[in-house]
Amino acid sequence: MSFSAKSGASLSSRAARWWWRRQPSCAAAAPAWSCFGGSWSRPVLDMSYSRHFLDFQGSSIPSSMKKLVVTKLSQNFREAVTLQQDSPVPLPGDGDLLVRNRFVGINASDINYSAGRYDASVKPPFDIGFEGVGEVVALGLSASADYTVGQAVAYVKAGSFAEYTVVPARQAVPLPSVKPEFLTLMVSGATAYLSLKELGDLSEGKKVLVTAAAGGTGQFAVQLAKKAKCHVIGTCSSDEKGGFLKSIGCDRTINYKTENVESVLRKDYPEGVDVVYESVGGKMFDLALNALAIKGRLIVIGFITGYQNPTGFQPIKAELLPAKLLKKSASVQGFFLNHYLSDYKMALQHLLKMYERGDLVCEVDFGDMSPEGKFTGLESVFRA
Question: Does the reported pTM lie above 0.85?
């Protein structure tokens, strides 16, 4: 989803005070760009630092912005979240960046977060949104050692559903340009890469089933499994998505609206599949579990069918799980990206290099097929 640029009044006096308290005395000569005003202000010795609080295109940073805020815990995103029109633009601390968001990622996880399922101690109101790509428009002095105004960055941090977000410099990832494709790698790509690397034990000839294969993270699981020379089966909901999956190398697509997934797996893969990358839950989880081969591994990275239920879960036949796993020496293991953050930057750098070499397709849903048109502006988050 993209934002249009917002211009407005110059940065408030609190920003100027924050900066001037940290400046030494200096000569009166000043470069062409102006410093922050006020009867108490003085020119600074190195005026390049003053640009850290100016829009990189030369327009002023506004004093207010739009952002989405969770005002009520609910599995219904529209009920849980409110669009605030005049929130103060936050100020970066010494080690922070102020990022003007150009694209933000919208995930099923946003529903869980706004329903209070990830952290019961967090109470409304609180900011929402996890992923953003944009450019640095202001930064603290320490952060300026590694970043400059105008630099493209990506980040994963709560509060991305806003026109501006403060991001600790250590959590930002420098980018060659502001492109929405980079956004798909932050959570969806990294989840696929790390889960398959750590839990999948992929090798040539292994059969890998990816559910919701044309989705945000499924598309990367398909491609990474193919890079490992596996045979990949992908489930999807339309022939159009099936065509996309074939274009990225999927060996067998199953349109679950026109084919019976259980029958296809039983007929075409009688010995079962070695790895399942599962994000759907409910009946699909049961089908995938039954399709495991001897020593098969099922990786749970989500259960999207249950996210809008009051409990967040769809029922599965859990009472049979121990017997099924024992019978096949199989395993089921969950994967939550937050538990693998020590390897996150390594994974992201690897994925970025793959994309830049042309070895990875990053499909982005801009809402072109939506009845209301493309996803543009924070207002469109509700229907994305």
Answer: no
